């Protein structure tokens, strides 16, 4: 029996054991003041002694390295070094790692050295070009298997995909939310200093970035649809900032709005049935809607001064935007009524920000309860990132004195935020923009390595 997996003709996934009922008891909340990283050990994957050839060992090494990297990336786990538990591994024959349940694992020994989460795995060759991986993650303190799976019929080049699928399962159990390892980023990048800005799609960590546009003209403001099947972006390929839509599966683009003036900052409604964007008439910027299939744009939000940066809440009940109707640009939120799936109507709006000289690019948490945005601090001449409740209360600062930090976007599970920054080596020195990520509380800030000269304005797509 074979099943499709991550778009690949890959493996059957067999549940060895798992205790989803425990998820409510072990959820890690990074917003809690008591949050601390979970101490995790992921020993080298064992190799079935009956099939311990060099290629099987290579698969085991690659799988172990990827899972280590994934869990470290989350900011939730503190990975213990191999040296700390080498004595324990020497006492236990690696073959036991493939058994169901705890097998002969001595959880007391692991607990004594401070391990809270233990992941053990064994790799076996199945045929000339396929392998299986038996893997489980144990809550050491409670002596319970949290996740246990066996992946079969894995081709040599699919071990990374398998580890990402398993990593998502581990995240789901520990956080009660979806994973991120099978999600994508879309952003603007340049592969050299003199190159034109193109739209790129990459893996969740900025790796494997591929341009979906081309041409010697700039592209701007990309955004995913909620299902990850489409991307909107703005292109100057015809000399005017026109709005385009890209079909991810078909790899084709078409113009969505080409009115004279600005057609930029497209944002899909959660249902994907309408796109809100910034349009202009004789320099006056307002927010319009258009159907994903195209057609005439409709006025959506207008007023004195600019109205830009529309962002639908994931529950579809509100839209955040930036308005200059009272002077400097600030974040507003409007309540929506839907006459139909493609006809949102503003019933009321409210100004959320009062501090700061210029606030922009609001982005919603998946629960529609928090909004991250960029604000210009005139006193230090820097853009920084902030977060607040959906009603404007509980304002928090996420970045400070690390260059300019802009265009935040939440991960699919809301645990992380991707953004752009022109900091240099973490210092308050401006350089070329690159992509960065942090925990939603502002901790664990680090650069994503796209391999490009410049990377900016990221949007995080769904976990597929």
Key traits:
mainly beta; elongated; 464 residues; 33 strands; seven-stranded mixed beta sheet; Neuraminidase; single chain; 5 helices; disordered N terminus; Rossmann fold; four-stranded antiparallel beta sheet
What does this structure look like?
- The protein has 5 helices and 33 strands.
- The chain is mainly beta.
- It has 2 domains: about 5-175, Rossmann fold, CATH 3.40.50.10070; about 185-460, TolB, C-terminal domain (Neuraminidase), CATH 2.120.10.
- Strands 3, 4, 5, 6, 7, 8 and 9 form a 7-stranded mixed β-sheet that branches.
- Helix 2 (about 55-75) packs parallel to helix 5.
- The longest helix has 20 residues, at about 55-75.
- Residues about 1-25 have low confidence and may be disordered.
Give a quick precis of the structure.
By secondary structure, this protein is mainly β. The chain contains 5 helices and 33 strands. The chain has 2 domains: 4-175, TolB, N-terminal domain (Rossmann fold, 3-Layer(aba) Sandwich); 184-460, TolB, C-terminal domain (Neuraminidase, 6 Propeller).
Distance between the termini: 23 Å
Q: What CATH first level of the largest domain would be assigned?
A: Mainly Beta
- Give the CATH topology of the largest domain: Neuraminidase
Percent range for β-strand residues: 35-45%
The major sheet is characterized as: 7 strands, mixed
Radius of gyration: 24 Å
Q: Low-confidence runs (pLDDT<50, min 5 residues)?
A: 1-24
How many individual helices?
Answer: 5
Specify the helix fraction band. Answer: 10-25%
Mean pLDDT: 90
- Provide the CATH superfamily of the largest domain: TolB, C-terminal domain
